Amino acid sequence: MSSKIYVGNLPYSVTDASLRSNFSEHGSVSSAKVMMDRDTGKSKGFGFVEMGSADEAQTAITALHGMSVDGRSIVVSLARPREASSGGGSYSADGYKGQRADVGYGNGGFGGGRY
């Protein structure tokens, strides 16, 4: 079992330090990070906490899931592994490899798309 926790529906006032503080009551915290918008620098409303062990992570999840923080009921669960993005197509030595079979050169009219 993983010790990385997803924390969602966070108020925008929550910082890395306050997130670490809340979770440290339930075990040792290796890292705590609130995700920030790259353009605005404001919180995205979710973050990740890594606990010292899987047992500490489960204790924190049980204790904090559904807890009200500044009027918002937070979501606390095990973090899922990041999925690989599909990209949308790529160029290679063999030519363009699109994701849709109905779009591309020679597949239905001028420009290659459906009309």
Describe the structure.
By secondary structure, the chain is α+β, with helices and mostly antiparallel strands. The chain has a domain at 4-78: RRM (RNA recognition motif) domain (Alpha-Beta Plaits, 2-Layer Sandwich). It contains two helices and eight strands. The protein has a four-stranded antiparallel β-sheet with strand order 2-3-1-6, covered by helices on one side. The termini are far apart.
The CATH class designation of the domain at 4-78 is Alpha Beta
Q: Which strands sit side by side, in order, in the main sheet?
A: 2-3-1-6
Structural Rg: 21 Å
The number of strands is 8
**Superfamily at the CATH H level of the domain at 4-78?**
RRM (RNA recognition motif) domain
Our count of helices gives 2
Name the poorly predicted regions: none
Order of helices and strands: EHEEHEEEEE
**CATH structural fold name of the domain at 4-78:** Alpha-Beta Plaits
Strand percentage:
25-35%
Shape: extended
Structural class: alpha+beta
Mean pLDDT: 84
- CATH level-two architecture of the domain at 4-78: 2-Layer Sandwich
* Terminal Cα span: 50 Å
Main beta sheet: 4 strands, antiparallel
Protein name: RNA-binding protein
Pfam families: RRM_1
Domain RRM: 3-81
Organism: Ideonella margarita
